[in-house]
Amino acid sequence: MKSDVEISQESSMEPIVKIADKLGISEDQIEQYGHYKAKVQFDPKTERNDGKLILVTSINPTTAGEGKTTVTIGLGDAFTELHKKIALALREPSLGPVMGMKGGATGGGYAQVVPMDDINLHFTGDFDALTEAHNTLAALIDNHIQHGNQLNIDPRQIVWKRVLDVNDRELRQVVVGLGGRTSGVPRQDGFDITVASELMAILCLATDLTDLKKRIGQMLIGYTYDRQPVLVSDLHVQGALTLLLKDAIKPNLVQTIEHTPAFIHGGPFANIAHGCNSILATQAALHFGDYTITEAGFGSDLGGEKFMDIVAPKLKKSPDCVVVVATVRALKLNGGADKNNLNTEDLNALETGIVNLKRHVENMQQYGKPVVVAINKFVSDSDAEINFLKDYVHNELGVKGAVINSWAEGGKGAVDLAKEVIAACDQPATFKPLYSSDNSLLEKINAIVTKVYGGTNVELSNKAKNALKRIEKMGYGHLPVCMAKTQYSLTDNAKQLGAPTNFTIHVSDLQLKLGAGFIVALTGKILTMPGLPSHPAALDMDIDENGRITGLF
Amino acid sequence: MKSDVEISQESSMEPIVKIADKLGISEDQIEQYGHYKAKVQFDPKTERNDGKLILVTSINPTTAGEGKTTVTIGLGDAFTELHKKIALALREPSLGPVMGMKGGATGGGYAQVVPMDDINLHFTGDFDALTEAHNTLAALIDNHIQHGNQLNIDPRQIVWKRVLDVNDRELRQVVVGLGGRTSGVPRQDGFDITVASELMAILCLATDLTDLKKRIGQMLIGYTYDRQPVLVSDLHVQGALTLLLKDAIKPNLVQTIEHTPAFIHGGPFANIAHGCNSILATQAALHFGDYTITEAGFGSDLGGEKFMDIVAPKLKKSPDCVVVVATVRALKLNGGADKNNLNTEDLNALETGIVNLKRHVENMQQYGKPVVVAINKFVSDSDAEINFLKDYVHNELGVKGAVINSWAEGGKGAVDLAKEVIAACDQPATFKPLYSSDNSLLEKINAIVTKVYGGTNVELSNKAKNALKRIEKMGYGHLPVCMAKTQYSLTDNAKQLGAPTNFTIHVSDLQLKLGAGFIVALTGKILTMPGLPSHPAALDMDIDENGRITGLF
């Protein structure tokens, strides 16, 4: 069996100029980064927003992975098979996880975006630019304090941490500024992974360079000794930070193995941020294609909910159809099967765990849009298991569904699904938001917990209660809420699988993200800086003298 | 008067494909990064190494700047004026200083490399890739310790710090690994600026991808509890780190305002590392051009000496001519003039300070190669001052010299200098190295101190003495020495200008850089992480809705 990187390196790519041309993008509108990657010059003000939008989300993911990106890419290739003018809109991978765990963010098997090695490694430098801009701001804050602290910033109340695009638990909690008078002011600090930076969220929500600069200026960096908020604009550095992101804001264009155009741009994590690719990439896809397929991170409870409640209002467009990805393996796990025993047929576990799929389908249905279930087939699935699942989707859930096998077959393996999706896109449907901006912050959190997670209560820690009071007093109660929650469960406890009821969500803190324009509610134990496993993927990677890569998935 | 960024943005660039074509580089051999930047696919094994090589160095720099890069670029444009097949080989700017102090590394006035904004901001991502690779290694080291520490690494003896391409004094000395059992092992650590990373030195010394990987594997990361060295190869991650640098190793091609081709690649600082662009960039220039002009950082005592003693042996070629850049202003400062009074004619100060030029010319002459002095003219220089300097160069030093005014006139302002340089390149000359690898480390340091700095003694701290013993015991006494010293003085005290004699150089520590293949000798108080000034340049930078940039010099 060939590895993903082998399939990728053996695939014959078309020059990116030709891929752009498929969408009617001229050579003048792109800046090439090598022969197979380009940044697209695109003025969102000229946007034609009437393409059909398809959102791909999933059941709760397991450590095995549900292949949501593989499904998204395969579905795109099926649209190409059906001669539709299609563009994908996807997130960029983060190097931290790439170096840590096997399994990339560029699809798998014969449903991949290429060149997968470049996309997984630095790509066009967007994340590196974000890292640089984020840390430049951090340095400017400490430098302001060092040189007299005219703004009266309290070093104990700085909320702007530092970031690296590395999984590095060692940097979660640090003390900086040691070494005496000439080396800064000692204080507690910490590093997040770059994809958790508010700058990443902003890059993905900004509608143009001016909006980006405005949002950067609004970011909260800390408080003064008399507890007044300090914004980036108080430091007068929003111009310099925007300058550092002048290229990062432009969407990137690549292709799938089957030459379907794919915009890949931005990538905030969905458990700690809003988890969707940039609005500009989705707008570019909608502008140039007749159909756009985009993917939201993790399950419908995280990326799916956030796409609907945070992204759609800013995009001024909601999905015409939602695809929920499910696998037999993950549903069996949700039904109590042993994770080391998923290759064995187990209809009981499947029947027990299938409630997880039901919840995710209903989650998306309540937004008023048609839902199609994609059954992502694995080699180990038995016919009986697949049939049971198909049957359940059709008869119990009453929605359309299709088996997809793009990992092995590329676009051909997703044609059935594509036909269902195209049909669904033509159904008339009205978007029903979960909450209105008039709702209080607590009402918004309650709406998400009860209507999406299936829980009953929200419990705020004292810290969260104080933060809530302060945020409302500051006049930011109208902002949407971005939940930070484990992706593995509908609850805030990663071990509670299936479709739990009667549970409480524990909010430990609320963070004000004024640039992104949302309030992050931290639940359970959510880490904003991952660690590496005992055998990191990096140990198996190599490149030989001819540039042949091994071990990159 | 137009700012550098205005001149740059108004200049009419040629497509990079056309610039490559001037050197006989086909479209297949380049990967475009936008329309005006490219990475060059170049196999150094096919190298034609018989082009003429010109090294530009200077007197001790002052905070005002001697315009060495401006001279280098102007000289290149003069070669173009004279219809010579010329290629420049320059260093990439570091974003830390760009955000800190006015004055970029891309030349000035009408002698600039363009697009200067892109070159100063991320460029093709090389430094970002180095930052990522460096910190990935740091995370892998701490992760190894966290997961059982099979290699028995002593957390107190880790020599591999972390890096950011930011001027951030707050990160010089930090404590990492706080937060309990799941967040690493608490220990002392620190951040250097990316250009001080050994990976940067290696990128600039590697001759191909295989050599890069070999050198990365050899890097020393720390010691075990029983004081045995631990190398990157012990962790088995040289493959992954090389993979992260697979594009960074390729030289970048851009152009000057007058369309002279320029390879810009790598940029280790010259006060803490070897201070020259990559060997691959110089090789590419030598391969494709008849003349190559390259620049070494700071004065002849730093970048100049290091080019001769560290780079030339690895390049297997020494310069055919050395250009020493001098300015009236800097020599007056060296002669005791007030730095706020440099616009006033002061022949006495010039006469006193000119000994600094004498020392730098003699420094380079002792390597056996012809020296030409470039008198870089400033608007404030009086005719009497310029004439005095010309006269001194000709009659007292007995070397060729010419006034250059490329800042105002571009290549035309450097034609006289170019003619002298071309003539010098045709003189027969034999390269005389300063020391041989058979010399002991102390003999090598002594040779540099007495023959280049003009000092009399070397004093080692106890720490340095112990390090020396350990390094020699480990069998690395044959390696060359890379001095870390202030750029402002020939001594290790930044305030001692002119050409001091009878002084002692104080070596505080010796660091083993096994990947780079040299021993760093730290003298005086050399910082490997700069700080920002009280009014950082970032505060004045901006970009408007049309992408027009202001404040970037």
Automatic annotation (TrEMBL), chains A, B:
Q: What gene name does this entry carry?
A: fhs
- Which keywords does UniProt give here? ATP-binding, Ligase, Nucleotide-binding, One-carbon metabolism
* Residues binding ATP: T62, T63, A64, G65, E66, G67, K68, T69
Q: Which reaction does it catalyse?
A: (6S)-5,6,7,8-tetrahydrofolate + formate + ATP = (6R)-10-formyltetrahydrofolate + ADP + phosphate
GO terms for biological process, alphabetical: tetrahydrofolate interconversion
List the pathway annotation: One-carbon metabolism; tetrahydrofolate interconversion
Family listed:
Belongs to the formate--tetrahydrofolate ligase family.
- Supply the InterPro entries for this chain: Formate_THF_ligase, Formate_THF_ligase_CS, P-loop_NTPase
Broadest EC class? ligase
Q: Which GO terms describe its molecular function?
A: ATP binding; formate-tetrahydrofolate ligase activity
* Species per Swiss-Prot/TrEMBL record: Lentilactobacillus kisonensis DSM 19906 = JCM 15041
Q: What is the lineage of its organism?
A: Bacteria, Bacillati, Bacillota, Bacilli, Lactobacillales
Q: What name does the UniProt record give this protein?
A: Formate--tetrahydrofolate ligase
**E.C. numbers:** 6.3.4.3
